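Appendix C reproduces, verbatim, an entry submitted by the partner laboratory led by Prof. M.T., so that reviewers can inspect both the input and the predicted structure.
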Amino acid sequence: MLAVINDGARAYKGVIPTDRWHEPYMAAEELRREMEDGVVFHAEERDGAICGVMGLQEVEDVTLVRHAYVGTAFQKQGIGTQLLEHLRELTTAPVLIGTWTEAIWAIRFYEKHGFRIVGEEEKTRLLHRYWKIPERQVETSVVLADQRWWQRAGKG
């Protein structure tokens, strides 16, 4: 899983703020902490090899999609779509996704699947409530919400 995460994360190098990029993008210790914090990872395999991973984390009254990556050799083959659809089937709670503001390809992917970007003030509130991330990451991220969240918020 770690190899796929770090391979897929290479797309962010030079795109996200340089102070947020590090090598490796996710170290084994960070992956372990995320799992201890309740992120349940799901993987897609092809020919016995993991080619995509996506985490699901139940936090209070929502479900977060966390750490979604597809290995570079497997991108544009529907693997991300399969993983996202699978994870959405596992929850009835509203689903929120955070990603980097400059990761336009990721934002478009989620929008293609019915997620919509929340406003700046709401983004900050949601990131502080549901995620455990540094303030700098809050500043440079967006949050996308599914239709369940928008309906619950009275905006759907």
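Strands lie at 40-46, 49-59, 62-70, 95-100, 116-117, 141-145. Additional entries are available on request from the coordinating office.
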